[in-house]
Design a protein that fits this description.
Elements: H1 2-13, H2 15-28, H3 30-50, H4 67-98, H5 101-105, H6 111-140, H7 150-178, H8 182-194, H9 207-213, H10 217-229, H11 235-270
Helix pairs in contact: 2-6, 3-4, 4-6, 4-7, 4-8, 4-10, 6-7, 7-10, 7-11, 10-11
Length: 276
């Protein structure tokens, strides 16, 4: 038991090295960091003008709100999803391109730690980015978010993180095996996001889309966060939303880790781990 615990602690201690590395890399590319925030606010600015064309009557079911408040939550979660996926996939691709993936995998480091280490920086940065974005938009565009809803919304977002990590792990396994696949990943992300009600109320979609949205974790997370930030929901509703997300997050995460381990095992057997 003591030896197993020491092994777990030794593996966990490596995450600090991954975190420090990615922080220094991001810090050295300040233009990319600034561009990310500019793109985020550009979306909010565009939708602030679109909101002038949307009557609040079409937003029934989410409390008294405006379209800019409605879509801001969607932008935040959709951006969280896209960025989380892209960063994990690009991290694996970068390791392959630099020729460091094979060197990394010959060290006594498990595949799970490599995956977690690749996203540990983003698991800290992206939720902070999401919350800061919501606060700034509420000030700049005079959007009213319920102060009591921030903590439940953050917990819903935290429950959603393993789902994003699981999808990213599956995408990374695809990249390891086929060396390509970013286009298909982008298509799947777009389909999940577009049909989640992130930008438009699901009532405007065909009824079958609204039915499928009940099984879309992104839609569940966005609806739950909207209920907390611009609706009249309380802790009970937040717990119900998290209970709905847990099975999706757990299954997707386990499938992702399994797929990545299979891909790593295959590449090691073929001796093509360092090829891209």
């Amino acid at each position: 038991m003591t030896r197993a615990r020491s092994g777990v602690l030794a593996e966990a201690s490596k995450l600090g090295a991954f975190l420090r590395r990615d922080f220094l890399v991001r810090l050295s590319y300040r233009t990319a960091l600034i561009s990310d925030w500019i793109n985020l606010f550009a979306q909010a600015l565009v939708f602030s003008f679109v909101s002038k064309l949307v009557h609040p009557i079409h937003l029934a079911g989410v409390g008294r709100t405006t379209y800019i408040a409605y879509v801001t939550v969607g932008i935040a979660v959709a951006g969280f999803m896209a960025l989380g996926l892209a960063r994990l996939v690009s991290a694996i691709q970068q390791e392959q391109l630099l020729g460091t993936l094979e060197s990394l995998m010959v060290t006594p480091t498990t595949a799970s730690v490599v995956l977690l280490g690749s996203v540990v920086y983003d698991m800290i940065y992206v939720p902070i980015r999401t919350v800061v974005f919501l606060i700034i938009v509420s000030i700049v565009f005079n959007v009213s978010f319920a102060a009591s809803g921030y903590v439940p919304a953050i917990l819903i977002l935290a429950t959603f993180i393993p789902f994003v990590w699981g999808l990213g792990s599956i995408a990374s396994a695809s990249i390891l095996t086929y060396r390509r696949g970013s286009g298909q990943i982008g298509l799947v992300t777009f389909a999940l996001t577009f049909t989640s009600g992130a930008y438009f109320p699901l009532a405007l979609f065909p009824s079958w889309v609204a039915s499928l949205a009940r099984l879309n974790p992104i839609a569940i997370a966005i609806t739950g966060m909207r209920a907390q930030l611009i609706g009249d929901a309380g802790w009970h509703d937040a717990l119900v939303t998290m209970a709905k997300l847990v099975p999706f997050s757990a299954i997707t995460l386990l499938l992702g880790l399994y797929a990545f381990r299979l891909a790593m095992r295959r590449e090691r057997r073929l001796g093509t781990l360092g090829l891209y």
